[in-house]
Design a protein that fits this description.
mainly beta, four-stranded antiparallel β-sheet, 28 strands, about 5% helix, about 40% strand
Length: about 450
């Protein structure tokens, strides 16, 4: 009897049951996944969430709950689904987004706003979701004119350069970092001031600003012809103007870069690196750990740009990065070098080296199955570093403050380790304790 029942069940399953189910085939809901357009950018964030710098919370009460203080893994921002994000930038507890929208708004920001570095938003000290930053527009200016060309973020100030060459500075100006006269006892909280610097105010005719780099409390501008201009805090010589004074006047930086065409600046704190079009590196500012000069009687600060002899013999350099106590370079062969003090990527027993030492290519994804993989760009915050390879993978290492490495834990990372971003990474904004990545879809 048991045997007959089993045969009966098999018969129904293999024939009749399939016939019965096929009658309802058209009633079964069909799901077709919708891939993001190839030109659609995604934004991921991770690290310290309590300041609102990640912009992933929309509920104030939930944003204040303890379990949302940190985000341990790369998390996709809903904001990037509603806007075409073109660029990202990370400051000390806040983030900036350059966007293209039909309403003409081009700049959004989220995070700490204690010094109005995100513009006027009433008495709010923290913005938890990307919000419009109003840039004062002249009647004849169009939304296209005020599209963001480049931007930078420091400890409590932000700088934006638009397509028509106008520069806007926001936030704390205690040391002249916003390029305007310092006002004694100025109150920055709830300030309506967005300082406007017209095109050509401090540059030569026909030489537009193409990049801006903000240190902790100073600002540097790079022009199309490779000239560098600076203002702000200068106690460590980071303005490169031959003195250690603060300055609100934007002036040209000379020294060893006077006749050079500089193509990139790098600074996350007070140590500055500059790269020329021949792949040579220059530096100025804080050098307490021998980042800029490792000779016996080298000064701890340099107030004038100097050619970095320590980088010679490492090939033609194509990218640079400067942290709080360490530096990085990337040569045209895709090889990464680090030096200075901190977690440099050589393991827990190497904390300092006076000369650039190479990190091995397998640490960044090169292997027998992918032997052409190489690093294409580097960057860093004050305490952590990152590198993007030719496959669009992001590798991070360093101090893991508030999970800013995005590795799923809060432990420091002593070797480069791949961060699980579910997209191809194009650019990374390194904050002091959070990270923002601009990406595109794998497909």
């Amino acid at each position: 009897m048991m045997k007959l029942n089993r045969q009966f069940v098999r018969s129904i399953t293999s024939k009749s049951k399939r016939i019965i189910l096929s009658q309802d085939k058209d009633k079964v809901p069909q799901y077709e996944g919708k891939a993001s357009p190839l030109n659609k950018k995604r934004v991921y964030g991770w690290g310290f969430q309590e300041t609102g710098a990640l912009g992933i919370q929309t509920n104030v009460k939930k944003a204040q709950e303890r379990y949302t203080q940190t985000v341990n893994f790369p998390t996709r921002l809903k904001f990037s689904e509603n806007c075409e994000v073109e660029d990202v930038c990370a400051g000390y507890g806040f983030s900036l987004f350059s966007v293209t929208r039909s309403d003409g708004e081009t700049l959004f920001a989220t995070g700490i706003n204690t010094d109005s570095q995100l513009g006027y938003h009433g008495t709010l000290d923290v913005i938890i979701y990307p919000t419009v930053v109003q840039l004062p527009r002249k009647p004849e200016e169009t939304p296209e004119d005020l599209k963001v060309r480049c931007m930078g973020a420091g400890r409590a100030h932000a700088v934006v350069v638009t397509k028509n060459g106008t520069i806007f500075t926001l936030g704390n100006n205690s040391y002249g970092q916003c390029g305007r006269t310092v006002i004694k006892d100025e109150v920055y909280k709830g300030s309506h001031i967005v300082h406007r610097i017209e095109k050509g105010t401090f540059t030569e005719e026909g030489d537009d600003v193409v990049a801006v780099e903000c240190g902790q409390d100073h600002t540097m501008f790079l022009t199309e012809k490779g000239k560098v201009y600076s203002c702000g805090w200068g106690a460590d010589g980071q303005t490169g103007r031959g003195h250690y004074l603060n300055s609100s006047e934007i002036m040209e930086v000379k020294g060893d870069i006077k006749d050079e065409k500089i193509v990139k600046l790098a600074c996350s704190s007070d140590c500055v690196l500059a790269l020329n079009d021949n792949g040579e590196v220059f530096g100025w500012g804080n050098s307490e750990y021998g980042q800029l000069d490792d000779t016996e009687h080298a000064p701890p600060q340099l107030n004038t740009p100097k050619t970095l002899e320590v980088t010679r013999g490492r090939g033609k350099i194509k990218d640079i990065a400067s942290g709080g106590s360490f530096c990085m370079i990337l040569n045209e062969e895709g090889l990464v070098y680090t030096w200075g003090y901190g977690i440099l990527g050589f393991g827990p027993f190497v904390q300092q080296t006076a000369k650039p030492e190479q990190l091995l290519p397998p640490l960044f994804g090169r292997n027998d199955f992918s032997n052409k993989t190489e690093v294409v760009s580097i960057g860093c915050g004050v305490f952590h570093m990152g590198a993007i390879n030719s496959d669009g993978d992001l590798f991070m290492w360093g101090k893991n403050r508030f999970s800013c490495l995005g590795l799923g834990h809060k432990k420091d990372q002593f070797f480069p380790f791949k961060t699980a971003v579910n997209a191809k990474v194009e650019k990374v904004g390194f904050g002091v304790d959070h990270t923002i990545a601009l990406c595109k879809s794998f497909i």
